[in-house]
Amino acid sequence: MARLPRLYAPDTAQLAQAQFARPLAGPDDAPPAAELDLLARWLRDSARETRVAVHGWVLLPEKITLLATPPGSDALPRLMQAFGRRYASRLRHGRVYAGRYRSTLIEAGSWVLPALAWLESLPVASGRMDEATSWPWSSAAGHVGRNAQRNTWLVDHADYWKMDDTPFARQAAYRELLEHGLSEAQRARIERALFGQWALGGAAFLKRLNTTASRRAAPAPRGRPRKKPATPDGR
Q1: Residue 6 belongs to a domain
Q2: Is residue 217 part of a domain?
Q3: Does residue 172 sit within a domain?
Q4: Calpha distance 12→5 (Å, rounded)
């Protein structure tokens, strides 16, 4: 089966995830702090070089996950390549990723914040941490007003800014979102879109992408196309 071309649309956030070919640690091992610190710096440097606006990120020993708005169709691939080159030349020689990274376009106003919370909660979902904001190698702490120095290079999405008028109120509102968590239905939709590499959003968003995206944004309907009703003249 032919692989899908990259899905891109201008000024649209993307959720992206890549598995490492060789995890830095096993599921029950302590996180390799020094190596994850290096990866965090390389991610920052790669984002700056490619001018990708990263809204959220998390590094686990087995994968990297980002929420970002790239300035062009080749910007996110170049970020992943730049990060991979640093990784391969300075930390682990050879193949970096276990296949292509997966990505999905995210609708602003309805799915950006859930996608951000899903991403930043991955250390909890993997059993490595009880609280998302306690994992040092992610943007979660910065979004609730902690560890700000590590996240000065991030570009907060407009949906995050719209949570409230002041920084403290935004941080409190986002902390509540993280602590409350997503519903099973929300998590399932995000994961289906990401792993299937289709867009995540409502009908109007998907319709708009028909004219702006680099390829079809949603799977084609199953089954044969419906027949058009016959006209009075039999045509």
Answers
A1: no
A2: no
A3: yes
A4: 17
| Backbone CA torsion sign across 214, 10, 207, 228 | negative
Number of H helices, E strands in the chain: 9, 4
Record the pTM.
0.90
Q: What is the extent of the structural domain holding 75?
A: 13-208
- Average per-residue pLDDT for the chain: 91
Q: Name the band, by pLDDT with cuts 50, 70 and 90, for residue 1.
A: very low
7 by Cβ neighbours in 10 Å (0-12 / 13-18 / 19+) ranks as buried
pLDDT value at position 159?
98
Per residue in 208-222, pLDDT (tens digit) is 999 999 888 888 766
Residue 101: CB atoms within 10 A of its CB come to 21
CATH number of the domain residue 202 falls in: 3.30.70.1290
Cβ of 37: how many Cβ atoms within 10 Å?
14
